[in-house]
What we know:
Elements: E1 7-11, H1 19-25, E2 28-32, H2 36-48, E3 54-57, E4 69-75, H3 78-81, H4 86-90, E5 95-104, H5 114-122, H6 132-140, E6 147-154, E7 157-159, H7 162-173, H8 178-188, E8 193-195, E9 198-201, E10 204-213
Parallel strand pairs: 1-2, 1-4, 2-3, 4-5
Antiparallel strand pairs: 5-10, 6-10, 7-9, 8-9
Helix pairs in contact: 7-8
Amino acid sequence: MLEGCRTALDVGAGFGALALPLARRLDAVTAMEPSGPMAAALRRAAVRAAARNLRVIEAAWGRAPVARHDLVLCAHVGPLLGRGSAFLSEVQAVATRAVLLVRDAPGGDDKFFFRELYPVLLGRAYGRSSDERDTVEAVRALGVEPAVVAIEYASDQPFASLEDACDFWMTYMGLEGAEPRAFLRAFLEPRLQRQGGEWIAPFRKRAHVIAWRV
């Protein structure tokens, strides 16, 4: 999908799992991320990687103007990929060459232990609001027949320290205060793997890649 692409827009870029490697391949990458702490962490990562061609927009889709890009991608942002999504109805006006969407598929590891952590720390079950079938049907409603490819991959998440890992979960789950942090510290310590000087959260993922040319 990158053939012929010089620019990319990563919507819901998070900490840059896709935006940073794309910046090594393309002339320019724009990362759109609504979470302030995540956007700040991505900017720091871009500086460390000397990715001067990576621009971070701290905003949700529809809340800030974006220029047209050759490739528009959105990975694992369920609210943007379900039926009735404004993003899906608008994305072809922004993409000049291709659109690529990624949805979790059943059978992979529990993402960031959310099924265990949500009931304890947030008081609710962790569940997806939609799945890849909703996304495919929404895309077909636009008159597009996308290619759908099932993939499996390692999605291990490295951290510099246990406290760095706690920072990640606190930000990702929108938590504040000493009590949830202490719980996370005790919960994560036996689950993360030590490799060299890093702490690794091991995850094996399954996903569907939904893509089409425009």
